[in-house]
Amino acid sequence: EIVMTQSPATLSVSPGERATLSCRASQSVSSNLAWYQQKPGQAPRLLIYGASTRATGIPARFSGSGSGTEFTLTISSLQSEDFAVYYCQQYNNWLPLTFGGGTKVEIK
Amino acid sequence: QVQLQESGPGLVKPSQTLSLTCTVSGGSISSGSYYWSWIRQPAGKGLEWIGRIYTSGSTNYNPSLKSRVTISVDTSKNQFSLKLSSVTAADTAVYYCAITDIVATKSFDYWGQGTLVTVSS
Known about the structure:
The structure holds two protein chains of two kinds. Chain A is an all-beta fold. The radius of gyration of chain A is 13 Å and the shape is globular. Helix content of chain A is about 0%, strand content about 50%. In chain B, the strands form two sheets. In chain B, strands 2, 4, 5, 6, 9, 10 and 11 form a seven-stranded mixed β-sheet that branches. The N and C termini of chain B lie far apart (about 40 Å). The interface between A and B is medium-sized, with 24 and 21 residues.
């Protein structure tokens, strides 16, 4: 099983500031990585797939980068609606599909 | 746009079988370009992929649950289902169904709203 590790667990950021979230895979997943945003009481929403491609309707302030085992999600200027929990997920050929433990982005 | 809706009992007794259904609207479950998955999330915790089914009926399961899980599809009703046997309190979670576009994103594109299942006597 590929273990996904996200850091930090909690990130305190002021509105308008930049947020950088990290995700590490225990072995290479190439670019087969997705990022999701989850708000309280809601299902996760796909933000990024293929490590760097924004999903339909996702604002340009969200960007993803990385390949292999190290990945980053950057939110360039945090808006009030961006405070949420973010998960990375690998979908390499290896099963099971696995998620990271999440990073909570909270208001500083 | 595809929409998913989970349904099923919200309370299941220990040792019994949890049964949930996901109804698909806005698209056909018979399309050959999608995987149909179940994912769960205990309260305050992360996401765990349970398994998926392809339109052909082929399935993949998380090894941690494989001995207890069955996922099936009913194309006539545009639904797919989850059965999890011998449940314990550890299976208490919000259960989501989700769709993966095999060709485009290969990710979980759309999710149901989730349904809370509590295992308790």
